[in-house]
Write a structure and sequence with these properties.
heterodimer, A: 297 residues, six-stranded mixed beta sheet, 10 helices, 24% strand, B: 693 residues, alpha/beta, Rossmann fold, 5 domains, eight-stranded mixed beta sheet, 13 helices, 28% strand, elongated
């Protein structure tokens, strides 16, 4: 693995506290893995020439001008797009569940940080909506200098609490987003499937593009418990004692049915749905974002 | 009325095992996985079992497991249902009841926090309480069997029961039961019962010929457990070192009824001071001999005690009392036809030299030998002499014979060596003779080279030193002349050794309190080379030992609690001797014919006898111990006991014999309990493996 690409591994990133650094690592690791620059042809337009200075990339050298003047000039571009992107991060108690030292919340933060970094690099506006029951911590989309620090600083201060709520509170978020935007939902979606679907439908109705990153831990996916176990619901505090071995098959079947239903509903509404495990590499999420962004233009 | 009792109640301690499933349950609960899960909605949907149901299941499993352990323990304790006395007649119905209460010292065994006797006494009181107003009752104590007298005054019987205490005697139950049933048969009442309350040791059931009447119901109520570990001191003997005056004590200890002591201590007390201690270990059913202490010879009697620690349920037999009292030298008086100045010409020269060697090292000789002529026999002081040896004495006058006979009957020992001078007719008229002499036999004339001794009484004291290999061969001495001895008409004579042709060689008989021993040959080398053989010296010493009954420690079979003590007291004393028992109580002893007998040996310990001033002697000590046959607490099935008494437990009379200790049929509850245990185990297995309730 390339040195930078190792930073796509959440286990490695979990050792880094600084989210800005994490974001850089993710994006750089992601970039080194690509054969073609994702920036080409996206959001920049020619603006002016300036003299070549050491360190400038050769691809931006205008060879015609060089042919005429025998001097190196570099093309300068201007951002032409105004893509608004909102990262909606589930910060309910259930996101605290961890696997191999990486909680779903932390994993969501990695995705959010990486995307924010990349988006701001692209010149896109980025906003953040951290949501839980009846509460949305909202940062409007912006691309100004220092916005990255604002978003990442907010992410660093959040502690998961409360219940997953994709109901009224989350829907109100739609009212605060006026222009057509890209909504990136990062959640474990452990709520009633109909509520999730209704919310996503509403965003689509508002003409927003939506990407859903469905984050679960390996423990939730495979249910690797054997001895008789007391399970305590992180959000409700409800307990159940059971023999995991005897219900594992049924549990996995029900969970997969839930995921499949969400996936199916999302596909029907042209929503990108990416099921992620906290042990998955982070490049998938960035790639999904870039693919979706390409659809905008 | 029915009650529940157990054959092996000690197993009930196993009920503590029910703590095992409880502890496992609590540990399991404490160690149960606790997982915080993001959302249990899928778990709830897949597992129908909820927490509360699971707890119910766990509680059920816990109860099942406790029940399994408890029932297994109960099954091992072998429960049975017992009937109370009232069950035989109906509560309050008039009846005649004789209570046989075992008060032997084994009843003092403490188990389950109370002595057996306390429980027996309570059972007797309970039985009396259930009797009707018109009832009569009587009490017989097993160690003091007296014909019971039935009385309608139940309160006096109750008082008698309450006043009883456990004794230090042992008992034989069968004659007591016989007394009880005989009294009931005479009573003529319609409802009769002999209630025997005992621990029913095997040792308490000695042979008894009388057979109680069949129509008297007997109820055996056992108050003892079948497993009653007990360690007892059986005996203590002095062991003398060969060449010194030092002696050690050889203590015999036995472990009865499953008793095992891994780390016990044996302490030796002499005159109340602890002089030695030794550790020991003993296994169940083992008898061990432990050598302890070193003692010097002393003239004064020493009261000794060996004691075991730690003590068990029965303390009395953990102690053994003894007295070390030096015997004065055994005096042997040899009688020959004549006495000359040339010692080696005397017939008893070899004998006297063998008994009291002139050049003896070490301890002073315990035997002294004197020689007199037969003519001086009447004037000799036989009172100071222990053994009289007649060596080839031709014959005794009537007065001489009478004196010797009186000497033997009062406890003296008489040894007869024959020879060519012996007048057969005179000897054969003598009542103390162990045989009838026939004639002198000559080996040469009978065509044999010699005779030799060939058959010996097995394990007799006389031959004890020769039993081990290379310890002397009694077949080696050659006999060229012997006297023919006919024992046909002498039923109390024992032939201790015979010649190779079957003729008696050594004979003995008891006459009064003394013993007579006859050698069919000479005591010198005239007829035999026996005096020149190495076996001669030990054989003669054993003869003296056998005739005198030498024993340094006074505590013997005759000195057991309940048996009489006989003391030699000089006649003609003006004042009685005083005996102080171990409890400090004083008793006067009146002498009769030179002896005084004390019958009330109810306590074990040292009895001190102080002679009157006229008899210049120090206090005499006598050791009395409990009879350790009672120490073996192995009990017997009560129905078998009833069979021993002659009553069939299932007799057809309306009041059938019943027992506290059940027969096999009554003990079958344990089988049902084990069946229930198996069923519970199956249920536990199913329940434990059920994932859905």
């Amino acid at each position: 693995m390339d040195d930078l690409q190792q930073f796509l591994d959440p286990k490695v990133l979990a050792k880094v506290d600084n989210l800005e650094l994490v974001a850089k690592f993710i994006v750089q690791g992601f970039m080194t893995g690509l054969h073609r620059s994702p920036y080409h042809g996206f959001s920049v337009e020619f603006s002016a020439y300036r003299k070549y200075a050491q360190g400038d990339e050769l691809k931006f050298v205008d060879w015609r001008v060089f042919g005429r003047t025998d001097k190196f000039y570099v093309k300068q571009f201007e951002e032409t797009t105004n893509l608004n992107c909102y990262i909606a991060l589930d910060v309910s108690e259930s996101m605290r569940m961890a696997d191999n030292g990486v909680s779903k919340f932390r994993y969501g933060c990695f995705i959010a940080a990486g995307l924010t970094y990349m988006m701001l690099k692209q010149g896109d506006c980025v906003g953040l909506a951290a949501f839980r029951t009846g509460e949305v911590d909202f940062i409007p989309a912006a691309r100004r200098a220092g916005h990255l620090a604002t978003v990442l600083g907010r992410l660093a201060r959040i502690t998961p609490a409360g219940k997953t709520d994709l109901g009224s509170g989350f829907v109100n978020l739609a009212g605060r987003i006026r222009s057509r935007s890209l909504i990136i939902l990062i959640s474990d979606l452990l709520a009633g499937p109909q509520q999730v679907i209704d919310t996503l439908k509403y965003f689509r109705y508002q003409n927003h593009e939506v990407i859903v990153f469905h984050v679960l831990t390996q423990a939730e996916l495979t249910f690797p418990f054997f001895k008789q176990t007391y399970f305590r619901d992180m959000e409700t505090g409800q307990t159940v004692i059971t023999d995991p071995g005897s219900i594992r098959q049924e549990y996995i079947r029900l969970l997969q049915a839930h995921i499949q239903r969400l996936k199916h509903e999302c596909e029907e509404r042209q929503i990108d749905f990416l099921s992620l495990s906290t042990s998955d590499q982070l490049d998938q999420s960035l790639m999904t974002y870039l693919s979706k962004r390409a659809m905008f233009y | 009325m029915l009650g529940c009792s157990f054959v092996n109640a000690l197993f009930l301690f196993g009920l503590a095992a029910i703590a095992v499933p409880i502890i496992i349950h609590l540990l399991f609960k404490a160690r149960r996985n606790q997982v915080e899960f993001s959302s249990i909605m899928f778990i709830l949907a897949s597992a129908v079992r909820k927490s509360s149901r699971f707890r119910l299941k766990e509680l059920l499993l816990l109860l099942l497991r406790i029940a399994i352990f408890a029932l297994i323990t109960l099954a091992f304790a072998r429960p049975f249902l017992k009937q109370e006395v009232a069950g035989a007649f109906g509560r309050g119905i008039a009846s005649d009841v004789v209570i046989v209460l075992d008060d032997s010292f084994s009843m003092g065994y403490v188990e389950l926090g109370a002595s057996r006797f306390d429980r027996a006494r309570q059972s007797a009181l309970d039985a009396l309480k259930q009797l009707g107003a018109e009832s009569r009752a009587a009490l017989v104590l097993a160690t003091r069997p007296e014909p019971p007298v039935l009385t309608p005054d139940l309160s006096s019987v109750r008082g008698a029961v309450q006043a009883t205490a456990v004794s230090q005697r042992r008992c034989n139950l069968l004659p007591v039961i016989d007394l009880a049933t005989s009294a009931l048969r005479r009573s003529g009442a319609q409802n009769r019962l002999a209630l025997v309350i005992s621990d029913f040791q095997l040792s308490a059931l000695s042979r008894h010929d009388a057979r109680p009447p069949d129509d008297i119901p007997i109820r055996a109520q056992s108050v003892g457990q079948s497993l009653a570990p007990n360690v007892a001191v059986l005996d203590a003997q002095l062991v003398e070192a060969a060449e010194t005056d030092r002696r050690t004590l050889l203590v015999k200890i036995a472990g009865f009824s499953g008793a095992a002591v891994p780390n016990g201590h044996l302490s030796l007390f002499l005159d109340g001071k602890k002089t030695a201690e030794k550790s020991f270990q003993i296994k169940s059913g083992e008898i061990r001999e432990i050598e302890i202490g070193e003692m010097d010879k002393t003239d004064a009697p020493v009261a000794g005690l060996v004691e075991l620690s730690p003590t068990d349920g029965l303390r009395l037999d953990d102690r053994f009392h003894f007295v070390i009292q030096e015997r004065p030298a055994t005096k042997v008086l040899c009688v020959e036809n004549t006495v000359t100045d040339i010692p080696y010409l005397q017939a008893t020269h070899y004998l006297r030299t063998a008994l009291s060697p002139a050049m003896r090292k070490g301890p002073s000789s315990p035997i002294s030998g004197d020689l007199i002529a037969a003519s001086d026999l009447l004037s000799a002081d036989l009172a100071t002499c222990d053994i009289l040896v007649l060596a080839d004495v031709a014959g005794l006058t009537e007065a001489q014979a009478s004196r010797v006979e009186s000497f033997v009957r009062s406890g003296g020992g008489l040894v007869l060596f024959l020879g060519p001078s012996v007048e057969v007719d005179i000897y054969n008229r003598w009542p103390v003779m162990p045989c009838r002499l026939t004639a002198i036999r000559n080996s040469a004339s009978e065509g044999v080279d010699f005779w030799y001794m060939n058959e010996f009484a097995p394990r007799h004291l006389l031959f004890e030193p020769f039993q081990k290999p290379r310890s002397g061969d009694l077949r080696a001495p050659q006999f060229f002349h012997i006297f023919g001895c006919d024992v046909k008409d002498y039923k109390d004579t024992t032939v201790l050794a015979s010649f190779d042709d079957g003729a008696p060689a050594i004979l003995t008989r008891t006459s009064g309190q003394g013993k007579v021993m006859l050698f069919a040959s000479t005591c010198d080398t005239a007829w035999t080379d026996l005096p020149k053989k190495m076996v001669y010296v030990p054989l003669m010493h054993q003869t003296v030992k056998f005739l005198v009954g030498v024993s340094q420690i006074q505590a013997r079979v005759s000195s057991l609690v309940g048996e009489s003590l006989t003391l030699r007291v000089a006649q003609g004393l003006g004042q009685p001797a005083l005996l102080t028992d171990p409890g400090g109580k004083r008793h006067e002893l009146r002498a009769s014919e030179g002896k005084a007998t004390f019958l009330q040996t109810d306590l074990s310990g040292i009895y001190r006898v102080t002679m009157p001033v006229e008899q210049a002697q120090g206090p005499q000590l006598l050791a009395v111990n409990v009879d350790t046959r009672e120490s073996d607490l192995t009990s017997m099935n009560a129905n078998d006991i009833l069979r021993l008494t002659g009553v069939q437990p299932q007799a057809e009379n309306p009041l059938r014999a019943v027992s506290e200790q059940p027969g096999d049929a009554e003990q079958r509850i344990w089988r049902w309990l084990l069946a229930v245990v198996l069923a519970l185990m199956a249920a536990e297995l199913v329940l434990a493996n059920t994932t859905r309730l």
